Amino acid sequence: MLDAIFLSEKRKNLLLLLKEEGPKSSDEIKNAFDFPWKSMIPQIKKLVDLGLVIQTDGSYSLSEMGIVIATNVQFLLNTLKIYEENRDFWSEHDLSSIPFHLLTRIGELGQCKVLKPDLSHIFKVQEDIVKCMLASSRIMVFVSAIHPAYHLVCLEFIEKGFDITIILTESVFESIQAECLPKSDTVFSDSSVLKLDLSEYKKEIQLFLNCENSDFFVFDGEKKPMMLIVTDKIFALSLLDKHGRVDRHYIVSFEPGALKWGEELFAYYKMNSRQIFSF
């Protein structure tokens, strides 16, 4: 059966055509493929003999098992395409933070691209993603490392009325808690990127917590992504490499299937998190 489907482009393509577009006449099949009809006749006969294709009154359609098999053929081809086009990302990063039931469905991501920052513009990838997020109305973010400017970005989203849900790791949550303690005049005092007055910072943090359109959670699991962003416009995922290092590479997609897949991944993390109401 595998040989019958995968060792013949004609048979494979015909199965996928009938799956996507339904029953076809011989003329419609001839028009769909750049093959002489004589060369198609034995391929169709093979599929009919296998019980995958049914011939009725000059029309060809998939049998019930033909539909099942063609669906799984398409599923496998989509998965192989995603892996092949982004092989470096999937093979060089730690995928253990993605639950297996979703990892087996990466073919649903559709057309993807990997964004890689260059050394002279190390944060440009994140800036590009933020620009896409600004065109959204609903935002879900998983954060494993805090950046001094993150709270300003979140504040802008909230001020624009976006629905935003943020999941923090335990270490990020503890860092924010420590910064909110009255022991220093500045937060992120070891960073030259941003200096903030402590009282101002605490007010902004409290604004996040009290805002009706924002929710905060702390993730209790061990396996986690570096960053996950899902909106109604963009899906972006960053993972640690297999040596536990950060490389700031993101796999990004704008397709509906990727947004749905990303939302399910976010829901998985949220299910294993606890909601917080105060720092």
Helicity range of the residues?
A: 40-55%
Total strand segments: 13
**Whole-Å distance between the termini?**
60 Å
The whole-angstrom Rg is 25 Å
**How do the helices and strands follow one another from N- to C-terminus?**
HHEHHEEHHHEHEHEHEEHEEEEHE
Give the class from helix and strand content and strand pairing.
alpha+beta
**Mean pLDDT over the residues:** 82
Strand content: 15-25%
**Biggest sheet details:** 8 strands, mixed
Q: Tell me, what's the shape? A: elongated
- Strand order of the main beta sheet, please? 4-12-11-10-5-6-9-13
Helical stretch count? 12
Low-confidence stretches: 119-123, 184-196
Describe this protein's structure.
This protein is α+β, with helices and mostly antiparallel strands. Helix content is 47%, strand content 19%. The chain is built from 12 helices and 13 strands. The chain has helices at residues 2-6, 9-21, 26-32, 37-49, 64-85, 87-92, 100-103, 124-133, 150-159, 170-180, 198-210, 256-271, and strands at 24-25, 53-56, 59-62, 112-115, 138-143, 163-169, 186-187, 196-197, 214-219, 227-231, 235-238, 250-253, 273-276. The strands form 3 sheets. Strands 4-12-11-10-5-6-9-13 form an 8-stranded mixed beta sheet, with helices on both faces. A 3-stranded antiparallel beta sheet has the order 1-3-2. A two-stranded antiparallel sheet has the order 7-8. Helix 2 packs across helix 5 (64-85) and helix 9 (150-159) crosses helix 11. The longest helix has 22 residues, at 64-85. It is elongated and about 80 Å long. Residues 119-123 and 184-196 have low confidence and may be disordered.
